[in-house]
Every structure is written in C-alpha cells, then in structure tokens.
C-alpha cells in the first residue's frame, strides 16, 4: 500500500469516523504549507476586479437622501425641483416603492432577526436613515438633486440611551403594525430581542461562595472600516434577468431576500460576488443592492450605488454597543462556582442580528471557564442611533472585555496570579459546552463537547513569549509606566446545525480541475484554502485547481462568509466532492486497463501526484483518463459535488498577552508587544492564519484604545471621516507575535478549526488588563482614550494623597 | 475641458470636468487599479506617483495634474515580471482583500526610490497614511523591508 493510498484512506476515515489523528499533518503535501495565495499576484498588480471596476455603458448613478433627524414622521416629500435637475431619471421614496417588511441581516432562512425595515420608511429612526434615492446620468447630478428634495418632517422625541429606551413612557421606535420578530419581540418596549437562560442552581452556588463579585462594563460603537465601501452594480442581461454585482459576504441570502422585496421570481436574479475589499460582517447585510436593482427594473438601465466613507460610517452597520454586568461566585481556593452575565445591548434603529450577536456574547464567553451554574440575561434594545449588525467577533469582543477583565479582578481579590487562576478554571478536552443548547441560532442548538483543545499550551507558550515573570518587576517608577496583561479566549467554527456549504469539482483534459464553490472569499484567503484542500485530496499541485467562487448562477449554494465557517464547513464540502472525484478517477482507470486486457481491481489502485497508480505496470495520468472519458471510451464527465453541514462547532482557543506603556502625564497608551497564541487546529495556510490573527487583533486594538462614535445631542455622528475615526496605523501596531499551536480537530477538514474571528476577542481585555497592571487603575469602559486615563490618574493621585494625609 | 499629461510613460489627452479629481479620471480611462476608500485624502487607497512622489489622487484635481507625470499601479510590474515590491507582498502573504495593496505598493516604491535602505521605523512612518483593515500592517511592513533588502542586493 503506498503512502498516498494510506493517506487517502485515513483521510476518508477521518471524516467518516471522526477519529482523532494528531500529528498526521506532517504527511500533507499542500495543506499546512504557505503556498502562494491563488489571487495574490493579480492583487499586487492592481488587476483584481472589484465591484466598481466594471463600467457599463449607460449606467445610472444613485445618491441617497439621508435623514437629518433622529426620529421623525415624514409628512411629505416634494421631488419636483429635484426632478428638474438635468440628467435626473428616477427618484424613489416611500411613496413609490412597495412596503414589504424585511431584515437586512444576511442570515439563513428564516432569519432570526426582526422584520422591522422597509426599502424606505415612513418614519425615520436615526440621523442617517434612508429617505429617498435619486438615479441620474451622473453622480454629480444625482447629488445635486438630492439636495433639492423637499421633505417635511414632524419631529418626534428621540431616545438615545438604551437604559431609557426600556423605561415606561419612552418613545416607541417601531410602532408600525408590520414589524414582527421572534416570540420574545416586544416592540412596545423597544425590545428587539431578549433572553433569559439559567443552567444549574445559580442561587445555591451564590449562597455557598466565599466571594461574590459583581462588576459592570461598557463597550462602544465600532465601525467596520472595510476599505472598499458598500457598492453594487445591477443590469438586465440579454435574457432580461437581473444581474446584481455586489460587494457581499452572502450572495445566496442576497438573492433570496431581493426576490422577496423586489417581488420578482428568484430565478430571474443572478447575484455575482466579484473581488471584495473586506467585509468583517458589514457585508453580511442586504444593505444597498435593493436600490440599484429597483432602478434597473424600472428603467431597464444599469444602475450603480457606492457609499461614501461618511455614509459608510453612519448608515451602514456597526458593532453593538453593550452594557454588561458580570457576576461570579468563587471559592477562596479560586474555583469558580457560578457565573452570571446580564447584557443590555443597543441595536440602534433596526434589529439586524439583534438576537444572535448577543447570544454569542454569552455563548463564546460563559462556557470558557468551568462552573456549576450559569445565568444569562439579555435585552437588545432599539434606540434612535446608527444600526448595529454582524461584526467580526459577533458579540465576542464585547463579552470578553467583561469576562477577562472580571477574571483579573477576581484573581486580584483572591490573591492568585491571574494566569494561574485562568489555568485552574479553563475548560479542556472532553468537557461539555454547558450552554450550547440553550444558546442556539434563534432555536435550540445541538449539544457540544470539546474535543481538540490546547488552551493550556497556548497559555504556556504565550507566557514565555511575553515574559510573564517580569510582570511584578516592571519599571513603574517614572512618569511612563509599564504593564503586562493577558486574556483567554474561545470562539466557534460555523453555526452548528445551520451553516451549509457545497462545492463541485470537474476534471479537465490537462489533468486540472475546476472547483466551484458557493463560499465567498472576502479577503480572508478562502479561495486559496479551499483550493489547497482540493489539491491535497486529489493529490495534485495547487496550480492544478482552478477555483471559481460565489455566483448564484454558476456555483452551488453556500450560506456565506460569516460565523468563522468557510474553512470548517465549506472546506469539508470541497473535501467530500474531491473524494468522490478520486473514486471516479480510480474507476475510470480500472475500466481503461480492463479494456486493454489488463484487468485490475479498484481496491488495488490509488492516486498519487496526478496519476492513478497500480501495484505493477505504468500509471495513468489524470490527463489521459480525461481524454479517454471525454472522447473515446466509456464517455462521461468525471465530476462530483458535495455538501456539508455540521452539528459540531469546535471552538478555537487563544491566549493573548500585551505589554503596554502608559504615559501618566498625557494618558497615552502605547502597545509595545502583543502575543497571540492560537489553537486553530491544523492551519491549512499558516501564513494566512497569522494574517487573520494580526489583522483581527489590529482592528480590536483600535477598539481598545481609540475607536468609538462621538455623537452630538441630536444623535448625529461627529467623527464620520477616517481623519476623525482613529484606527491603528502601521505606526501604532506593536511588535506582534503569532504562535500557532497545533491541535487536530476531528470534525474539521484535515484537522482544521476556524481562526478568523477569535483574534478580535483579545485586545480589548488584554490591553485593559495591561493598563491596570501598569498604573493600578481598573478601567471598565472602552476605549481607553488618553482623556479617560489622564482624568482617572489625576483622581487616583488625589485619592492617594488624601490617604497619605 | 481637455488635459494633457503623461500617464505611465504615455502622453495622453483626456476629457474631464473642472471639478473632477484625478482618481475619477484615471478610473474612467481604464486605470481601475487606483482605488477609492475615503475620497478625502485619509486612506491611501488612491495613491499614485505624481512626478515621482506619492500623492493621493482623490484630492488632486485632474486639471492640476495637467502637464505632470503620473505613474499608477498598472505600470508597476506585470504578470510576467512583477516588481520586487509586488513579489515581496505576494511571498509574505501581505495581501488579504488587496484593496489597499495598489496604494501600499505605490507608497513602498516612492519610499524605496528615495531611501533604498529604510529602517523599520521609516517604513512604518511611510505607510502610516495607508489604512489596511485586514492585515494589521504586520506583513505589509515586513514585505516592504524585504523588498528593499532584495533590491539593494540587485543594484
Ligand atoms: S481615497 Fe484617496 S486617500 Fe482615501
Ligand atoms: S488587505 Fe484589505 S485593506 Fe489591506
């Protein structure tokens, strides 16, 4: 038996039996190697074609009129002056488009988000809500016409504070009769989603604890800042079908939702995802393609809409701000007995992902440490502020700020080293995820048992890399003080029982393969990773795989690029399709040999480096087999397809460490070094896994220190440009060390788990803990701006001086 | 109005409106490698070289570019012969979505042309005006340093 054959068999088994096979990744030829990413060169050359890089003759350009008021009825819209602007072709508003309730959340059907939006509302609900849309021959004409639309508003009292929004007598934001949600939806109280889950006897555990600690935390709005703004181009093809070329993470959800709100048959729509300039959840939303689609359907002409950066910041989607209360019960030896999390989340004017982001806040955090009992209370509340939605991390970055700051606070109270305290309580292989069932995707979820888990190794290696032992002896005598902090993290891989991906593979005459996947590469590298999985399974070099992804006409279905699912779910679909092709290749080869009077049994055959081999005699190349099956003998196309859904959701784990410098005179924090030790199973493309880690952590360093929305008292965002909305730049980024810790996840393709979201969970708490270590002040509210730190330092000093007196 | 300028080593005469910015006009003439991320000079996605120096084309009026020499990403390297900077971005996996990449490559070229052996600090400072939401800047900085080292060896 050749090595490859044995591999092949073992590979087949590994997804059939789910047996653990640690260490076998050394046998892989393509998986686990830093291959050239399949799209890298064209992108380096500037030849990638993004949505807006296609120009069509006769395209109409769209511009929107956005609400200047946080809460108001639209009494009337007068478009007559706007219509007289030369070049204006069509103006859409609530008076001339159908009123169909829907959610922009690009989730599986039926979406667990409330149907509380219309293409155009009659009542605007935040500064930046849609009012009208002009289609004109040029962008400039459209922009001029927008300014000439005369709207009469009847102003309503707005509500900006989520605590106030649920008080009796607060203005009701969704009073329209059509708005509907899951059974707990309570629009009269501005509640878009709520949940109340208890596991175990929490009150008894609180009673017998030596220490009960309760603390509140607050996290802000965050802008996704995909460098490519939302953009869509639509046209009618020669068959009079609507083609939608859109920067999306969810082409299939986009097609389904568009068919409903445009009231045309789904089969008349083709959604194409070209190259995407980043998504991060912002593009898991049917945010704008409805408008050019409507214009194209009404005028027969191509139509294009691209948001400006300021529109992108204000009117696309954001990370849910949350108020979190964390309560825990521990023994004096440091064993956690019970954990309780109470979340009040602000979804802004509409409830996209209102339930599920918040269930993930609990689902990713609460189970990380073993306890006898858990409680999770949650309300997601409407306010007259920008709309929240899916955002890389999906509730995790918020929840881990509370959990991991809380863990440090507990450790301090107990007098235990925070690292040791985590090590004592963290879950490990064989443990159940106690809350998995209660926190499903809008329904009961499948039970989860942890299999691959190297979190202790992550802690160990991260600790060495940062030099945790220096923590007590760092220099804190001067104005600039140093500190080290850490956190432990877990995330998920796909939505169990919900996410499904599929693939199709076919053989070509030169022994190459076309791989068609519904999966959506938005910059993560999934086209490369899925090609690697195919190449590994087919035993060919990576350049023999030609991938084409996400086109609702030409690729099979995939739920989309979200929930850290692509490698884990779509990767397995690719593997299954390729295994089918391997079987067919072997059968075809056997048939060819039989026809030449050299009978062989298929059991004796195996594939190796682009050939089907037999124990004796020359092999048959894939190319020869294809030529034969196309043109001469037993004619057929060798191809197969596969789908994959998983009831398992194996969590990746991470231990993050940061060393910071805090200038007590200016309040500025500089991150000197950041270490992320990540267990993502087998990394299919290690450099991409590192890249995900660095990029995910980078965006959350901004979340920790500088990114937030500044509002005036009318609810308008004041920092709506890249100049005023501060992200981490190349100068701010610390020395970064990613340590990939190998484990083997039996449910994933070649042992892989996810890696894309977990890095966003870490920097918030890790940096807050490092700052607390540096200056002895605990911050429970992000971002840690210089103003906040300086003010706290002055108060702290005054208190210390008073104590000394 | 008509403007005469030199783009990627070719003299061109292009139509434009007086209010139009260079990004717009380049893209309309097929040079779509130059991207738009903010249109306010704050992200670097639209960077081109104007007389050999990096410039954000979204805040340069097309009319201002008349008589000048513009280099866009399209003339830096080809599929057959990528520029050393592009090679380094590919080899270092410094490209994720790639939307920032043309601007970064232009920036790196403008830097290395004037300073063939930049320090890490200098590279970071030079790229600081370039937003990249995907990579956390770690690998792009490494790629530019590697490219500079490699090019020094060549010359
Ligand atoms: S688009 Fe020119 S700097 Fe951002
Ligand atoms: S690679 Fe996506 S913005 Fe840089």
Description:
The complex is a heterodimer of chains A (805) and B (155). Chain A is α+β, with helices and mostly antiparallel strands and 805 residues long. Among the domains of chain A are: 3-30 and 500-645, 2-Layer Sandwich (Aldehyde Oxidoreductase, domain 4), CATH 3.30.365; 322-495 and 648-802, 2-Layer Sandwich (Aldehyde Oxidoreductase, domain 4). In chain A, the strands form seven sheets. Chain A has a seven-stranded mixed beta sheet, sandwiched between helices. A five-stranded mixed beta sheet of chain A has the order 7-15-14-13-8, with helices on both faces. In chain A, strand 26 (653-663) and strand 27 (669-679) form a beta hairpin. In chain A, helix 15 packs across helix 16 (622-631) and helix 17 (686-705) crosses helix 19 (763-775). Chain B folds into two domains: 2-75, Beta-grasp domain (Ubiquitin-like (UB roll), Roll); 84-151, Orthogonal Bundle (DNA polymerase, domain 1), CATH 1.10.150.120. In chain B, helix 2 (84-91) crosses helix 5 (138-154) and helix 4 (120-127) packs across helix 5 (138-154). The termini of chain B are far apart. Chains A and B meet through helix 2 and helix 17 of A and helix 2, helix 3, helix 4 and helix 5 of B. Bound molecules: FE2/S2 (inorganic) cluster (2 copies). One FE2/S2 (inorganic) cluster (FES) sits between chains B (95-100, 132-135) and A (227, 278, 523).
